[in-house]
Amino acid sequence: MGSAPDSSSASRKARVAEMRRAERARDRRNRTIAIVAGAAVVVALVGAGAWAISRESGDSGAEAQGGSKSAGHFTTGEDGVKTWSAKLTQNHVAKTVDYPMTPPVGGDHNQVWMNCNGDVYTKAIANENAVHSLEHGAVWVTYNSKASEADVKALAEKVKATPYTLMSPVEDQKDLIMLSAWGKQRTVTGASDPNLDKFLETYVQGEQTPEPGAACTGGLSQ
């Protein structure tokens, strides 16, 4: 009569032992899965980190070079307007940019534009800020010390009366008076040159503008 309880107890103990073995097996499987998953995450993070570092290094290198020294050249049209042949980059950078032309007609630039609502600057301005103004559709009128005082005064009056323009001296430009828009440039002989008005009419907020309608106020001023 004592064999039935003993048999039942043994059976129960066996089931408990089996359940414990199964639980330990599940624990081992879960730990293995967790380890494998953790390793995969680490590998993914390391790979992503390496990619980010590589990309940052590449971007830094491009920024150190100014980000705008790309292959390109001017081609001159029948109207005397020169057009830059390569696509001009539009990245915001905090460093000085080595532009391939003077004055620059586009490329990477400072995140702050020069005010260009008919603003006349009597001192040189930073290329990087002026280029941002060109991106907004402004025309930049520049002159060197060989330009006559009368022309400089007349140009200033023209600029003051024309929204989306700015004017400043650029001493190292090759011609006395030059007009620049995004990707476009030409030389004029003086304030009375009819090509001045033609350039303004065509390129102030013209089709070449990367960001038409963007602000020409609220930026940087001397």
From TrEMBL:
Residues 15-26 have a biased composition (Basic and acidic residues). InterPro entries: DUF3105. The lineage of its organism: Bacteria, Bacillati, Actinomycetota, Actinomycetes, Kitasatosporales. The chain crosses the membrane at residues 33-53. It comes from Streptomyces jeddahensis. Keywords: Membrane, Transmembrane, Transmembrane helix. Residues 1-11 have a biased composition (Polar residues). The keyword Zinc does not apply. Residues 1-26, 57-78 are annotated as: Disordered. Pfam families: DUF3105. This is DUF3105 domain-containing protein. The keyword Isomerase does not apply.
